[in-house]
Design brief:
The complex is a heterodimer of chains A (771) and B (207). Chain A has 771 residues and is mostly beta strands. In chain A, 6% of the residues lie in helices and 54% in strands. Chain A has a 22-stranded antiparallel beta barrel. The chains are: A mainly beta (771), B mainly beta (207).
Chain lengths: 771, 207
């Protein structure tokens, strides 16, 4: 089997059958290939002997060829399914053959890991696929609700719902939409609530640094969101869910396929009243907001050419109130916020022959936010902030199949970014060029190796070289071990480079690395600087944050219904950027800038068990162990330089064993999931228990590190249940709830407590057709 | 008003011993007990949030470490003054006295002498004896919870106007010295200094 399908579909040998003389062999018997739910598998392939291979019809059926002996073996294969071997004499006894899906999505094709199609099973790096069925079973509306149920992924509230992977925060996780990077971060966080799930076909979760093909940001891993395509001639679906907190989600989609054209259009409207974890205080924990998402995908497939244009639009507006305390006076402030995002992504692929594939793609994005805070009393403006980012990337990728065992990928691209914001000076522009190389090699059936390297040349932070090597060895059909070594980096963000901020009330200044020289000179000229705390030659020397990581683990198919997967990882991250004072001011306050200061290590294990007890009942467990710590803090503790306060506020020395690592990381987390199809009623039941262990929420005892039991938020388990049933004409109805035992924690602002929902999906094309 | 728990037994004992005992070799070790001073209320100037301009200037609260009492005016015999998060010493730009201060790291109870490395300075235009700003001197400011917390392990050393050394540990910036876990910036009254100190009245550097 071709592992890295440059030719996406297997070479199909269509045999012509000349004679049907011997009627005894029952030629002409029609056998349907179906999955366990009874849906035809149109991409199944029939193998007879060594040379005879042919595809089934579009309806998923084939005729038994004549002249086959009764003891002749026939093998049916299909991507994503366990293959099936059967003798001709048995084949004559049936009209339908069912194939079983590979357990744990092992058969799924992954794009993001190598930028070529490759099945999970054969990837030498840890990848998880979240399929449509699982997304549906979650009953979620926004991406955060789907991702938080996955082993090893946490959703952390910090300027939006940000993802955490392998102990690294949202800043270090690249989010792709159909393979192209999404922009728009607030304080480093990519807010997952910006993404509606109704048009998502599947999600690829790639763990470990992938800067070797994606460059900056892909330090902890990559999330690739793959949206739906129109598969059938005409589809039109309406879908809606309503849940607690007056939250309504309505989607509509239309798909058309005509000759070589296809079109898919999607619209989603989301609105919520928000929720409040601190009812005693003014304002809500989550602001009420409304969001609209629209997407259009247009494609044309011709013989050697494949053209696509994808467009996406997102708008959001929110409002909230907060209280400003100034001494003894308390004033209420109205806050409103808007966000707007636009993406346009055309792609052209050309396949001159089966050994070459050329792809030219570009992504143009705009991201805008503005927030306004006004005192309720006199409408005086407390703060107003605008932000606008333009991003444009053009890329050429060439895939060349050197021979049946080697696939070479070469890519190069250019990106340009501009940014303007209230707290930045003027317009700012960055340019970068890059080139990447990747070699995929399957020396034998047991081994495979993927090597890659990427070079980035950036107008801001200079050159970077990011190598990665991954290999897998299959000890047997059921057990394989993989290992991946890679380097990752993250370029300084806009804030770290461009910020020019003065907190008038508190009297301090913060300058981005590009601004600090001029900023300090200006303050000196004004006579405001009392003492420089750093040599000015160090100003503006901001490097990219970088990491070196190892991921190693196994896939063990204990039986065809029992899969055990594990991954062990360690990320050594250096040059982490933090603020540090650069000058002491006459006012007694400081001026700050950004510097490469901290070194952090994160390591742990991600384990997943999947057990298919029967076709209708599946059970899975996931567990993650995480240890994330600041190495400089460790050194300072060893040197006896860190202290803390007891309950009478007296000083004690901190011991190594007191140190709990980085804030907001749970040492233990896990999940249990049961998926059951009740055979009589046809109701699907999906029950999930999602555990997030205790985590440090912030410093209490004054030493800024996590070392005191009072600094931990308690762990909790969220029990989520979804029931759904498909009716005859394709209508799906569902009901369910999140966090049924109502466990909340004021330190997790993304968890509102119990939410109940009901929903329905109406495939108009089927309903109208059947009437 | 401020309540002061002056437990000066050590100090009294010292007086008694110096009076009755003349043989230095047999002099028993003198144990100095720490004095805890509670709730010196020292609110900061009133600042217009939008412009950063001071709209109402408030006075410093002056304190004598020698006498363990507040001093009414800047002209009095005080050693240390408080206003908001700023701590001044009576010398240089802050006063006409000769008090000096140094900041060192360590555990209050373990610090049994003034380290040789401690450099006692006056307040000046080049910087305050106890540096101001979060993380520099005696406190950290948490911008998300807006809580001021005394940096654990920071000990303030003073040389008083009277020439004696004292070690001071700021315990709390909030009223009635609550555990930090119970402090909420919105509801706990701030700018209430609680600290403990030991003054060595014999002029030596030992505590």
């Amino acid at each position: 089997m071709n592992r890295f399908n440059l030719n996406k579909y297997k070479k199909v040998l269509l045999l012509t059958f000349l004679i049907a003389a011997e009627a005894a062999a029952f030629p002409g018997d029609l056998i349907s290939i179906k999955d366990r739910s009874g849906n035809p598998i149109p991409h199944a392939v029939v193998h007879i002997g060594k040379d005879s291979v042919f595809a089934v019809s579009r309806e998923g059926a084939f005729e038994i060829p004549p002249q086959l002996g009764p003891n002749q073996w026939v093998e049916i294969t299909a991507l994503g399914y366990d293959s099936r071997l059967i003798q001709v004499k048995e084949l004559h006894l049936v009209t339908t053959l069912n194939l079983q899906e590979k357990i744990g999505q092992l058969g799924e094709v992954v794009v993001s890991a190598t930028r070529t199609d490759r099945s999970v099973e054969n990837l030498p790096m840890p990848v998880t696929i979240i399929g449509r069925k699982q997304i549906q079973e979650t009953g979620g509306m926004r991406l955060s609700e789907v991702l938080r149920e996955q082993t090893g992924l946490q959703v952390v509230g910090n300027h939006g719902s940000g993802l955490q992977m392998q102990g690294l925060s949202s800043d270090y996780i690249l989010i792709l939409l159909d393979g192209e990077p999404l922009i728009g971060r607030t304080a480093g966080t990519f807010d997952l609530d910006r993404i509606s799930v109704s048009n998502i076909e599947r999600i690829e979760v790639l763990r470990g640094p992938s800067s070797a093909i994606y460059g900056s940001e892909a330090m902890a891993g990559v999330i690739n969101i793959i949206t739906k395509n129109s598969q059938k001639k005409v589809t039109a679906t309406l879908e809606s869910r309503y849940r607690s907190f007056n939250t309504l989600d309505v989607s509509g989609e239309v798909g058309l396929n005509k000759e070589d054209w296809n079109l898919y259009a999607f619209f989603n409207r989301f609105s919520t009243d928000g929720f409040d974890l601190t009812p005693g205080e003014p304002g809500k924990t989550q602001s009420p907001y409304q969001a609209n998402t629209a997407q259009i995908k247009l494609g044309r497939k011709m013989n050697k050419w494949d053209l696509k244009v994808y467009g996406r639009f997102y708008s959001e507006n929110s409002d909230n109130i907060m209280q400003v305390v100034d001494g003894t006076t308390r004033q209420l402030v109205d806050m409103t916020g808007d966000r707007l995002e636009l993406n346009l992504n055309p792609t052209v692929s050309f396949r001159p022959n089966e050994n070459w594939l050329l792809t030219m793609r570009s992504m143009s994005s705009v991201f805008e936010t503005n927030t306004l805070m006004e005192f309720q009393e006199d409408r005086k403006v407390l703060d107003e902030q605008d932000f606008r980012q333009n991003y444009h990337r053009t890329e050429l990728q060439v895939d060349h199949q050197l021979d049946s065992k080697q696939l070479l990928t070469i890519g190069m691209g250019h990106l340009a970014e501009t940014v303007s914001a209230t707290r930045y000076d003027d317009d700012n522009r960055f340019d970068a060029g890059y080139i990447f190389l990747q070699h995929q090699w399957d020396p034998t059936g047991k081994w495979n190796i993927v090597t890659g390297v990427r070079g980035d040349l950036h107008s801001q932070y200079g050159e970077r070289l990011s190598p990665k090597i991954s290999g897998m060895y299959a000890f047997s059909d059921s057990f394989s071990w993989q290992m991946s070594l890679g380097a990752g980096f993250k370029a300084p963000d806009f804030r770290q480079l461009l910020l020019n901020f003065n907190n008038a009330a508190a009297g301090y200044y913060v300058f981005g690395a590009n601004m600090v020289q001029a900023g300090i000179e200006r303050l000196q000229a004004q006579g405001l600087v009392q003492q420089l705390l750093l040599d000015p030659t160090q100003f503006g020397q901001l490097q990219a944050e970088s990491s070196q990581a190892i991921n190693t683990g196994f896939r063990w198919k204990i039986s065809k219904d029992l899969l055990f997967q594990g991954n062990f990882f360690q990320n050594n991250i250096s040059n982490l950027i933090e603020t540090a004072p650069v000058a002491r001011l006459a006012s007694g306050q400081n001026a700050f800038s950004y510097f490469n200061i901290a070194n952090v290590i994160t390591r742990g294990a991600e384990l997943d068990w999947t057990y298919r007890i029967t076709d209708d009942l599946q059970l899975s467990f996931g567990y993650m162990l995480l240890d994330a710590r600041d190495l400089d803090v460790m050194d300072r503790i060893s040197n006896g330089e860190i202290f803390r306060r007891d309950s009478q506020n007296r000083t004690q020395r901190v011991n190594r064993s007191d140190y709990g690592g980085l804030f907001n990381r749970s040492r233990h987390s896990g999940n249990i999931k049961i998926s059951y199809k009740e055979p009589y009623s046809g109701i699907n039941v999906a029950l999930r228990g999602i555990y997030r262990g205790r985590f440090g929420f912030g410093d209490i005892n004054g030493n800024l590190i996590l070392d005191d039991p009072a600094e931990y938020a308690k762990g909790l388990t969220s029990w989520n249940l979804t029931l759904n049933k498909s009716l005859q004409n394709g209508i799906l109805v569902e009901v369910g709830g999140f966090n049924l035992t109502n466990q909340t924690n004021i330190y997790d602002p993304t968890n509102p407590g119990t939410m109940l929902f009901l929903g329905a999906k109406l495939p108009l094309h089927q309903v109208l057709h059947s009437n | 008003m401020n309540k002061m728990n002056g437990l000066l037994t050590g100090l009294l004992g010292l007086t008694i011993f110096t009076n009755c005992e003349t043989n230095d070799d047999d002099q028993p070790e003198i144990i100095l007990d720490a004095v805890t001073v509670e709730n010196i209320h020292a609110p900061n100037d009133v600042i217009d949030r939008a412009t950063g301009e001071v709209t109402e200037v408030r006075p410093f609260r002056y304190f004598s470490l020698e006498k363990n009492e507040l001093v009414e005016s800047q002209g009095g015999n005080w050693d240390v003054g408080f206003k908001g998060t700023t701590i001044i010493v009576n010398s240089g730009t802050s006063g006409s006295g000769s008090a000096r201060a140094a900041v060192v790291s360590g555990i209050f109870d373990e610090l049994d002498e003034v380290p040789a490395s401690a450099s006692f300075v006056s307040d000046g235009s080049g910087g305050m004896a106890i540096p101001t700003g979060s993380g520099n001197g005696w406190y950290n400011y948490n911008s998300s919870t807006r809580v001021i917390s005394p940096i654990p392990g920071r000990i303030l050393l003073f040389k008083t106007n009277g020439g004696n050394y004292a070690k001071v540990e700021i315990l709390s910036y909030y009223q009635n010295n609550p555990p930090l876990a119970e402090v909420s910036s919105g509801t706990t009254p701030g700018a209430f200094y609680t600290f403990r100190y030991i003054l060595q009245p014999d002029g030596s550097k030992n505590f």
